UniProtKB/TrEMBL annotation:
Similarity-based family: Belongs to the 2-oxoadipate dioxygenase/decarboxylase family.
GO molecular-function terms, A-Z: dioxygenase activity
Keywords: Dioxygenase, Iron, Oxidoreductase
Matches recorded under Pfam families: HGLS (PF07063)
Annotated source species: Kushneria avicenniae
This protein's name: 2-oxoadipate dioxygenase/decarboxylase
PANTHER family: 2-OXOADIPATE DIOXYGENASE_DECARBOXYLASE, PTHR39479
Length: 468
């Protein structure tokens, strides 16, 4: 029997193929990649705290920065989401977290497909933020039915891909030839189509209801709308963007600049206005109509420590409170006001760890051994701190691998226009989303906790210690 290609390898092949396709489709993405590579090289050269922390993590963490990307797609139906889950599973990507964007005025809810194991993340942490349109939020009955009809009739996956999904399920994997075919077929789903599937009038009706609806409903597939490289210094990258002919949005989403970066900071450049073609009613080429559509953009991100539930709660509270002082501010003034609002959020690793605000993972220092274990506390947290104090183990923050709904809404808005936000009644729809998906989403906090606990357990085993 032919050997199966590992899901990690299929994911890496796919993310490279996707990056090549997007670079050809949106040349500014190629420019952004060069800019980020440039800034990252400078940051590493100058050995900033961020660069040092990264270097301490060893080769795999450095290697992953070069290829690290996330993308986003928007799906139209529960069936599309269900099949998309199977597609990502072949690449070792699983749904983590539920993001409800309705409170922020976007008629979608979402998850992020990403690798979850430490080794898989180190191999290639490629993630795709995947939204599902919530048709039930379209108020106009006839428009809602029309959208449902159109979506019902489209097939966003090729026959070849569907056959390979079945084969992979049946055989428990894909061999080299099938893996190559899989990447080619899967790419088709993410490709841009300049021909709309509806006439101009229908497009404008959806556009009027919400720009997002037009983007999801009027095309053959869920074109990838951005791919985001990871920068080691988002402030420097944002500042350099205009020199490279890229106009960034006015504010960086997420937490302010800090000595210990937390969570995720993001900024984007505005979506391009791209030519599209509307078909004629009678299908006659001469009756086609020209138009434009804005959907595809560029984004950069800087990642910091994953926060515990407690830390996250504090972050959410401070961010919400900061709105009052940052409202209407842009660029440096906005960042200064934000930093002020976050003044009381501890900004050193020891405090973040001791107060249980951020997740850490542990590693035994080289050559460490315990000689007087009877003087060590037995309670796990206290024991970890005592071992760090004695330089027997080292703690380092776990990188945040997920997304922030408030930031995501800000990214959506900057591309769809501020006028795009509408008010949708808050309903708890996670159960509907998971029913469509066919599985429950994984809890991000549980994943970080497991990683932290496992690393500490391994340290204690190495040192011959036990804890309570
Ligand atoms: C997704 C926007 C969210 C992020 O990085 O938070 C996102 C979209 O516009 O479809 O990608
Ligand atoms: Ni994004």
């Amino acid at each position: 029997m032919a050997r199966h290609v590992s899901p990690d390898d299929i994911r890496t092949r796919f993310s490279h193929a996707m990056s090549d396709m997007y670079r050809a489709e949106v040349p500014q993405y190629g420019t952004l990649l060069k800019l980020v590579a440039d800034i990252n090289a400078q940051t590493l050269y100058h050995r900033t705290p961020e660069a040092n922390a990264l270097a301490n993590r060893g080769g795999s963490e450095m290697a992953r920065i070069e290829i690290e990307r996330h993308g986003a797609i928007r799906l139209g139906t529960p069936e599309e989401l269900h099949t998309m889950r199977r597609v990502f599973a072949v690449m070792g990507m699983f749904p983590v977290s539920y993001y409800d964007l309705a409170p922020a005025g976007m008629p979608v809810h979402a998850t992020a497909f990403r690798p979850v194991d430490d080794e898989a993340l180190a191999h290639n942490p490629f993630r795709v933020f995947t939204s599902l349109l919530r048709l039930e939020l379209i108020e106009d009955d006839s428009l809602r039915h029309r959208a449902a009809d159109i979506l019902e009739r489209r097939q966003i996956f090729t026959d070849g891909l569907l056959a390979l999904l079945d084969k992979s399920d049946l055989d428990g994997g894909l061999d080299d030839r099938d893996a190559t075919a899989f990447v080619i077929e899967a790419l088709e789903t993410f490709r841009w189509h300049s021909h709309a599937t509806v006439d101009a009038e229908t497009y404008h009706a959806f556009h009027q209801a919400h720009r997002l609806i037009a983007d999801v409903v009027c095309f053959r597939g869920p074109h990838i709308n951005h791919l985001t490289p990871r920068t080691l210094d988002i402030d420097a990258t944002q500042q350099a963007m205009p020199e490279w002919g890229i106009t960034p949005k006015a504010t960086i989403e997420g937490p302010p600049q800090r000595d210990c970066p937390i969570l995720l900071r993001q900024t984007s450049f505005k979506a391009l206005e791209e030519p599209i073609i509307f078909p004629a009613d009678n299908g006659d080429e001469s009756g086609e109509e020209a138009g434009t559509h804005t959907a595809r953009f560029g984004e950069i991100e800087q990642r910091g420590a994953a926060l515990t539930r407690r830390g996250r709660k504090r972050y959410d509270q401070l961010l919400a409170a900061s709105r009052e002082v940052t409202h209407g501010l842009e660029s440096d003034a906005q960042q200064r006001a934000l930093a002020e609002a976050f003044h009381d959020f501890p900004d050193d690793e020891a405090t973040l760890r001791r107060e249980g605000l951020a997740w850490f993972e542990y590693q035994v220092e080289e050559g460490a051994s315990v000689t007087d274990s009877q003087h060590l506390p037995s309670e796990r947290g206290a024991l970890a701190e005592a071992l760090i104090e004695r330089n027997l183990i080292q703690a380092r923050p776990i990188i945040y691998e997920d997304f922030l709904p408030v930031s995501a809404a800000g990214i959506f808005r900057s591309n769809l226009g501020d006028g795009s936000a509408q008010h949708y009644a808050a309903t708890d729809s996670q159960a509907d989303f998971e029913a469509a998906l066919g599985v429950a989403v994984k809890d991000e906090f549980a994943l970080y906790e497991k990683r932290s606990e496992r690393s500490l357990t391994a340290c204690l085993e190495t040192l011959g210690l036990t804890s309570t």
